[in-house]
Amino acid sequence: MKNTFCYVMLFLLGLTMMASCGEKSEHQATENVEQKQTTETVEEKQEDFRLPAFSIDGDGFDTVRYKDYVFISQPIPDAVKARMQGKSMPDNATIGFDELRYLTLYHYDYEGNIQQGEMVCNQVIAHDLLCIFRALFAEVYPIYSIRLVDDFDADDEASMQANNTSCFNYRTVVGSRRISKHAMGLAVDVNPLQNPCIKHGRVHPETAKEYIDRTQDFPHKIDRDDYCKKIFTSYGFSWGGGWAGSKDYQHFEKR
């Protein structure tokens, strides 16, 4: 009986949070995803995909929905803490697990398959990210992968070379001693291979040199007119591709 009550409460919370995403019409992606689906294959994949089971074990859950897909924010589970400890969360970190949230997100990969991803972020942007990635999913916006940097031993270069979209990693800004926005869980890097960081003549990731020339047209490029850039900035994030000095085309951060 207790489990039934919990699932009902989560469903009602999901409807409430979905409404909060819709309060700002300019933030919400179109619900008519079929306009973006040019073949029946995508719809078939949606129907075949099954949501994994999840449990409610305390407060702090937040959800938004798109059709049958539930985007979830929750306190960092113990199993995830164990994966992060000594990697993205070193012993000298000045931020605690209680300030972070673990997100379950859905996205389309480059082959048009629906994937379940995971991300850790600061609690203050957790709901915004649920709404943003829900919007990207509704637009069938391709994201190569969304995994924790701990799968790459918190090696930022390795994560970028794998074209991995991520957020939290307690580290300094590349080439400096300054703490990165990623260290506070306030920055997201999206499709970094096609959208490199170019700073002081160096390219990050190093394997992204063919994508330096932003006048060229190629798939998965984030520019000023890209939907990903527009949805992030509509939620108050700044885009590294618009910076006056160095350029970080993958990077979105909130102050």
Q: Can you describe this structure?
A:
The structure is a single chain. The chain has 255 residues and is of the alpha+beta class. The chain has one domain (2-180). It contains six helices and twelve strands. It has helices spanning 2-22, 40-48, 78-84, 126-138, 156-161, 227-234, and strands at residues 62-66, 69-74, 100-108, 114-122, 145-146, 164-165, 187-189, 197-199, 202-204, 238-239, 247-248, 251-253. The model is unreliable at 1-13, 15-19 and 23-57 (pLDDT under 50).
Put simply, the count of helices is 6
The total tally of domains equals 1
Q: C-alpha Rg, in Å?
A: 18 Å
Tell me the distance between the termini. Answer: 43 Å
Sheet of most strands? 4 strands, antiparallel
- How would you describe the shape? globular
Low-confidence stretches: 1-13, 15-19, 23-57
Q: State the helical fraction.
A: 25-40%
How many DSSP-defined strands? Answer: 12
| Secondary-structure-derived class | alpha+beta
What fraction strand?
15-25%
